[in-house]
Amino acid sequence: MLGQEYIIGKIIGTGSSGDVYLGKNNITKEIVSIKVISKYKSSINEDEVQILARLPISPHSIRLIDTYDEPKKFYIITNYVKGSELSNWQNKQVTLPWLYALTGQMLETLQLIHSMGIVHRDIKLENILVDDDDNSDEMVNFTLIDFGSAAEDKGDGIINSNYAGTYGYYSPQLVQAGVDRSTQHVRSFNPSFDAYVKGDIFALGVVLFLLMEKREPFELNPQGTEPYHQFDKPVPMTPHSLIGRHTQLQRLVEMMLTGMYTSDEMMTQFTTILNTELV
Ligand SMILES: Nc1ncnc2c1ncn2[C@@H]1O[C@H](COP(=O)(O)OP(=O)(O)O)[C@@H](O)[C@H]1O
Ligand SMILES: [Mg+2]
148: Cβ below 6 Å to ligand 1? Predict the structure, then answer.
């Protein structure tokens, strides 16, 4: 029983699959995060635990500590990440070094998981935490969380699992393959691992665009409640908008938003930019 080993504390987050609580191990006193999934409300993504268990130790992603399977609830215990969701930064001024740190750390993390045959499939502001320490912007730490939509390539280059993700963050290629544009309903389909790899990069592009430009990179659906991309007329990025000299980074974000590049390719580009612009 979870209650024998952990004290459950205050709620620290909510998502589509349930609430997340702060917890403390009774013996080791370790502070943890406890994601509680109600078996009545949502189904458990078996892959979430499998994938969390396979994740290599990284300063920029969470670590699985334990799971508890009880009759009504399923619990996923991970290390507690101090900080808050990037969605809190949507209306705040961000600096260029902060944006470079975010880009570099998330590309590094995606490159790592992609190299292991894992795709995250729900990269968004809510699923990246930033530490609240008074670190300088170059030292700021970002953490990728929520592997609830993640999937694995079992060796055939195909992802055999239902479509996952969040409207507004789907790459054009994934939308065209899997979303019925007249009803906005997501069909079940099995895109390639490669399409999801590029989809993760696209979604990172959306995250960066939202933080840099303070608006959606693509127009929203005027009728519906959900944003969607009008791929025929993407809104171009305004150059020199927020903070002076970040044209190189804008170019990088534009590349991400084509939905055509892998994490390896983007990391190569990123390294080139670092060498030419910052040094
Ligand atoms: N390890 C963690 N440390 C700190 N906060 C977390 C942690 N895991 C989740 N949270 C918080 O809880 C929210 C929901 O968790 P998440 O895993 O994204 O669930 P869902 O799959 O329901 O979206 C996150 O957006 C974050 O604010
Ligand atoms: Mg989430």
Answer: yes
